[in-house]
Design brief:
Length: 75
């Protein structure tokens, strides 16, 4: 059983091209993953800031309620 030398070279070339395509795809997937990680990090920082602002707003609302009660209680 013998093979045509052209088939051997064509097969080798196909394997090299497929391997290169895998490396390109892996690099692209890695770049997308880094972008998602950066976005999640930015959103977590934003979520922390919003939570802090909500707590401050709750405290301000409680202070305002106390002030209103004191003003209403004065004759």
């Amino acid at each position: 059983m013998s093979f045509d030398p052209k088939i051997g070279w064509a097969l080798l070339l196909a394997l090299v091209l497929e391997t290169a395509a895998v490396f390109v795809w892996t690099g692209d997937a890695s770049a997308r993953l880094r972008m998602v990680e950066r976005r999640l990090e930015a959103e977590s920082t934003l979520a922390e800031r919003i939570a802090t602002m909500e707590a401050q707003l709750t405290d301000a609302r409680a202070s305002l309620d106390r002030i209103e009660r004191r003003l209403d209680a004065k004759p």
